[in-house]
Specification:
By secondary structure, this protein is an alpha+beta fold. The protein has 14 helices and 19 strands.
Length: 404
């Protein structure tokens, strides 16, 4: 990259907003949507490949590029509207900072997520990573009302809205959720909030894995729906056995009623954790895989959970596994080769189960890809969407993988 172009970047953003990463790659730290757009227009004009970064605490910031563009400068909580339970924040806001701000006003963003507490809101949305609370409050996309994003050639798009309502036509906001930055740089997000619950109780049971999945089906058949019902491998819960954890949140009476129904419907040795132990338990569970080299998720439905757990154990290892025991979905973390992930993806596809590579070193991401078309026609559709939102291929994102 020539000094002339670097000088233009410094003129654009200011000297303090341009630095170099540990590998010597220039890093831009724009502090507004307009600055992001101007940076990407300059990248388009100069032919640079651009790597997108948040705080670098989830997906490794190791993709080869001419320029690293980080959202660290987009760290403002723009507005919070308690009466409407909505907030507008910039994508670089750390979630722990946001949650503390909301708690002071009796609200919260009903998302738990793997990774360190300082993960940015934009990172969670771009990778669509959610934890056990997805059972009761829905996946990441259910918490996003709208957004502002900048395309690879510097166009600003504002899909969705700022209030809780239905969106007419194709909702481009959903395209950005879980897009891993392939369809634009998220700069601002409009979030759906919840009132803070007055009661929050956790039950845990330890037993052989198949006993726990059977009990989870009993709960589902009985219509018992706690806000979280998570099956955890021994490595996740730091236990000698598999653990089934149920979390009930809401009013005092509602929570006590849910707990009574769980005791009645599922014949397990339940243990109710006190407040401090419950907090420590969920902190451990949520962050157990933070140091793992790789994380994948599988979109399995609960009836196929036992079979897929066996499949993962055969082709990867039991290791760190989180699984939605009621509504399905599974996450695995550990170390694996690209070939083993490809084999598992193929076997999962035969069962109509998508496998997403949430994070891994660049060599694995490039070889395997974040997505994998498990249905005919998905790959070409993604390619067409990328042509619309990043026509010159500025963003360095491994969506499909270089080797199939």
């Amino acid at each position: 990259m020539s000094h002339d172009v670097l000088d233009r970047l410094r003129t654009l953003l200011g000297t303090s907003a341009v630095s170099r990463d540990p590998d010597g790659i220039p890093r831009a730290v724009p502090d507004s949507t307009d600055a992001v757009a101007a940076t990407l227009r300059l990248a388009e004009e100069s032919g640079w490949r651009v790597r997108l970064e948040g705080h670098g605490s989830w997906v490794p910031a190791d993709a080869p590029a001419d320029l690293a563009l980080t959202t660290r400068g987009l760290d403002r909580i723009v507005t919070v509207q308690p009466a409407d339970l909505v907030a507008t924040v910039e994508a670089g806001v750390a979630v722990d900072v946001l949650q503390r701000h909301l708690a002071d006003q009796g609200m919260w963003l009903a998302l738990d997520f793997p990774g360190r507490p300082e993960r940015t809101v934009g990172s969670i949305v771009a990778t669509a990573t959610a934890g056990a609370l997805r059972a009761g409050f829905g996946p990441v996309r259910d918490h996003i009302l709208g957004c502002t994003a900048v395309t690879g050639d510097g166009r600003v798009i504002r899909p969705g809205g700022t209030v809780v309502k239905n969106v007419a036509g194709y909702d481009l906001t959903k395209l950005q959720v879980g897009g891993f930055g392939a369809f634009g740089v998220l700069t601002t997000l409009h979030l759906r909030l919840r009132a803070s619950p007055s009661a929050d109780a956790t039950l845990v049971a330890r037993a052989p894995r198949d006993h726990l999945t059977s009990a989870a089906r009993d709960l589902s058949d009985a219509g018992v729906q706690p806000q979280a019902l998570e099956l955890l491998s021994p490595a996740v819960s730091a236990d000698s056995e598999w653990v089934l954890a149920a979390r009930c949140m809401g009013s005092d009476g509602g929570v006590e009623g849910d707990i009574a129904r769980i005791f009645d419907a599922a014949d397990l040795p339940w243990n109710r954790l006190d407040h401090d132990r419950a907090h420590a338990f969920w902190h451990l569970v949520t962050h157990a895989g933070s140091g793992a080299a790789m994380t994948i998720r599988l979109g399995v439905l609960s009836p196929g959970l036992d079979e897929l757990l066996d499949l993962v154990g055969q082709h990867l290892d039991e290791g760190l596994i989180w699984a939605g025991a009621a509504q399905g979905g599974m996450r695995w973390a550990g170390d694996a080769t690209a070939d083993s992930v490809r084999v598992l993806r193929h076997l999962a596809a035969e069962r109509e189960v998508p496998l997403t590579l949430e994070r891994a070193p660049w060599a694995i991401r490039q070889a395997v890809g974040h997505f994998g078309a498990y249905r005919e026609g998905v790959g070409p559709l993604v390619a067409q969407l990328r042509d619309v939102f990043d026509p010159s291929g500025r963003f360095v994102v491994a969506i499909d993988g270089s080797e199939q």
